[in-house]
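Why do we care about 3D structure at all? Because function follows from shape, and shape follows, mostly, from sequence. That is the central idea of this module. The next example makes it concrete: a single protein chain, its amino acid sequence, and then its structure expressed as tokens.
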Amino acid sequence: MKKAIMTLACVATLALPACNRPLTDQEKTIVGGVAGIGAGILTANAIGANKNWTVLTTLAGAAAGIMVARNYHTNQCAYSNGDGTYRTRPCPV
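And the structure:
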């Protein structure tokens, strides 16, 4: 199962640059969620977590991946200061 998931993640990652058009907001959300799921699974496997913690880290990764701190109308992004506050700056291109 792990090998199939990792293969799918690698193929999806390699296929993304083939897109010649900008992603829509919905597509960005999906990509962020999938990337978060992958990061959650990899983290759980790296620390040797049991199945319950693997599920939890996967769900947390998906939630973090779909949360985008970007205002598309003003092209401003929110960056954490590390103390619980945030600052806004123009988003990188």
